[in-house]
């Protein structure tokens, strides 16, 4: 039976799994679980993933959630996946696990919380807390610095000195791509100081093209939508303030 990938392309770990399958010629059926429509909370999806999160895969009778576990499973169970994605060498493999474990409580914690409390929260009807956003930005910036000084240290273009990308590059870069949704001022403030990270994103995109941009199309569209909304809101605030200023002078 064909592999099924339950995903929403607004979700960074979902995109990592989709890109991985495409780059490695793994046949799969993508089943959209629209988070904005709360489809992940349906009884039907709960049967597939009791955690009610994407990505999730079903391979025959085997069900699996957690993107890193999924990437490891796909790299191990499907033939033809190039060694660099998940090296057979145990020390290289262990280093990749080290990055993946670190990711959840550092880069992902910072990036996902920051995006939620600056852009996505409003779209999802959730309260946005500036104090939480400020704390998350600190975690995010510190994580980006650590990626540069620890994981991208050395001559390799990819994490832990790799000359070609591994599943860790894909996971972390897809997370950072979420910053595309930010206001340009916020995005430059966070990402601007990290030139090595910027180059690494570009290298990962090039190593996985055309699938990288194809999988991110939905995110790029959302970015444009948020930009338009911000411009409209700024214009209406400007108009309101000029009306307010004009009123007393006419009274
Ligand atoms: N650690 C999980 C995180 C999965 C996750 O947080 N997925 C989000 C989308 S990016 C989700 O399904 N959110 C819905 C929810 O938690 O209610 C992984 O790497 O797969």
From TrEMBL:
It is an enzyme of class 2 (transferase). Residues 89-226 form the GST C-terminal domain. Its EC number is 2.5.1.18. It comes from the Eukaryota. It catalyses: RX + glutathione = an S-substituted glutathione + a halide anion + H(+). SUPFAM superfamilies: GST C-terminal domain-like, Thioredoxin-like. GO terms for molecular function: glutathione transferase activity. Keywords: Detoxification, Transferase. PROSITE patterns: GST_CTER, GST_NTER. The keyword Transferase applies. InterPro entries: Glutathione-S-Trfase_C-like, Glutathione-S-Trfase_C_sf, Glutathione_S-Trfase, Glutathione_S-Trfase_N, GST_C_Theta, GST_N_Theta, GSTT1/2/3, Thioredoxin-like_sf. Residues 1-82 form the GST N-terminal domain. Belongs to the GST superfamily. Theta family. PANTHER family: GLUTATHIONE S-TRANSFERASE T1-RELATED (PTHR44750). This is glutathione transferase. It comes from Quercus lobata. The lineage of its organism: Eukaryota, Viridiplantae, Streptophyta, Embryophyta, Tracheophyta.
């Amino acid at each position: 039976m064909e592999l099924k990938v339950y995903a929403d392309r607004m979700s960074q770990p979902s995109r990592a799994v989709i890109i991985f399958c495409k780059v490695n010629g793994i046949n799969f059926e993508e089943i959209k679980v629209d988070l904005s429509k709360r489809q992940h909370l349906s009884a039907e999806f709960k049967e597939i993933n009791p955690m009610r999160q994407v990505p999730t895969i079903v391979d025959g009778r085997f069900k699996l959630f957690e993107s890193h576990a999924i990437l490891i499973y796909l790299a191990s169970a499907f033939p033809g996946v190039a060694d660099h994605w998940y090296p057979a060498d145990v020390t290289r493999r262990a280093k990749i696990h080290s990055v993946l474990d670190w990711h959840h409580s550092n880069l992902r914690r910072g990036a996902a919380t920051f995006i939620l409390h600056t852009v996505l929260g409003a779209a999802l009807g959730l309260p946005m807390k500036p104090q939480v956003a400020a704390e998350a930005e600190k975690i995010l910036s510190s994580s980006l610095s650590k990626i540069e000084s620890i994981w991208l240290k050395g001559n390799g273009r990819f994490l832990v000195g790799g000359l070609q990308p591994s599943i860790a590059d894909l996971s972390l870069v897809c997370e950072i791509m979420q910053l595309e949704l930010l206001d340009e001022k916020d995005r430059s403030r966070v990402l601007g100081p990290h030139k090595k990270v910027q180059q690494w994103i570009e290298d990962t995109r090039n190593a996985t093209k055309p699938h990288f941009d194809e999988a991110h199309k939905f995110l790029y569209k959302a970015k444009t939508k948020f930009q338009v909304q911000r411009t409209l809101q700024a214009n209406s605030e400007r108009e309101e303030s000029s009306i307010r200023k004009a009123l007393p002078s006419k009274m």
